[in-house]
Amino acid sequence: MDKVYEDLVFGDNGLMGSQCSNCKEYFFPKVKSCSNCASVEIENKNFGTTGRLWSWTTQNISPKAPYFLHENKENFEIYGVGFIEMPCGIKVKSRLQVSDTKFKINQKMELKTSILEKPDGATLPIFEFRVGKE
Amino acid sequence: MERVAIIGIGLHPFGRSPGFSGLDQGVFAARKALEDAELEWSDIGIAFGGSRSSGHAMAATNQLGLTGLPFINLYTGCATGGSSLFAAANAIKSGAAKYAMAIGFDKHERGAFSPSAKNNDIPPWVSETGLMVTTQFFALKLQRYMHDYNISHDTLVKVAEKAFQNGSLNPNAWRKNIVPYKEIAESKMINDPLRKYMFCSPAEGGAALILTSETEVRKMGAKAVFLEATEMRTKSYGSFEVYDTCLAVNIKPTATSNAAKAAFESAGIGPDDIDVLQIQDTEVGAEIMHLAENGFCEHGEQENLIQSGETLISGRIPVNTDGGCIANGEPIGASGLRQVYEICLQLRGQAGLRQVLNSPKVGYTHVYGSPGVSAVNILSAS
Known about the structure:
A: mainly beta, 5-stranded mixed barrel, B: alpha/beta, two-stranded antiparallel sheet, 13 helices, 35% helix
């Protein structure tokens, strides 16, 4: 697994972030100190694998570098971007798997891990959310 | 407290200027501002300037003259121009100099900006996986806002339509052609619900303002526009700002709301007293949402305001009379100063075909930049 993803936990274990031990605010991804109360007492927090769609958009044109998934404009595929409200109330930004149906705010979303191919042929595991069954 | 006065304004036309560097355009604007104030560059005692893509603003002194003045480069994303003015105004208040200049210029490549994760203390995978695109933030904020406050797609198109109409009346604008409703509504989708003609684009331009104290203006017998308030805020915990990788359980007011509130309080003036305003319109949704965040209406009231034409030049609260960012494009260093340039023209009665009628007396500007910075000004004609 790519080193930059070591701090993220995928699949059955859910999405991993932080919780401030002092003021109890949540953060994603993990943080070293709390941007609310400035405490450095931070604990790991598992946000789970399902949530509700808080907002969404689509990325219809390829982002510039350092984006390297589908760098080649010919094979760029539209992807979704959203904030998913997890059971504890934090909203995490994530790629969304684009489906045939249009996204709807408040619909159930499920965490999905996937492996994408980089332009150099290397693979990269990333997390996405997809529309889940109610 | 003694007010700060704007006694000189200068602008290099926005858009594309082949053969002219960003810095050249800044120097052009500075000379125009000096001419307007009837001053020489050597009179300027302190300067604050910014640019993202055209090098150090201070390098403009190579062309303007190496007078040895204190010149401070600054950068606060798209709010850079607003921050330059904030700093210059406070330098005048402190007595650091008799005359101060706020200057900004830029010349950007085509296409959306590519922000650096590293420079914003964000893990690199966020940009590598395509989650750090500025336009996504506006779309995500707007999508939720439309859901919560019943803003229609038709209203989004009308905001863009107005921007191009106003731009067509502005000889310094980049986009001087009216874009018909249908063309906007059917233009390429970029980030749902936002389409191509609903966004501003990175561009080129320069702007400069010269400031002094109210006392000095009286001594000089000069004409001036007065700053009733100039405030700047960065994001506070819990607000929803650009590049956020998560949002708090309880979402709090934005940097914009906090800056606006502070400005109205310090000026002792309310939103109802404002005759003409400039609101950051990075895209149409930003203009809509920022109207409420700045206090000009309640959340959700924008739908009726815009549908009934209240934000047109002929309306009750004319917004972005020069075409805003959408028709002028965005040279980051200059954009916030262009807003103030336009309000000065309006308050001086020099806005030509786009002049708001009945001699507007009080104006307002609001700029917003990454990663959650807002600067606002309240200006008066006398």
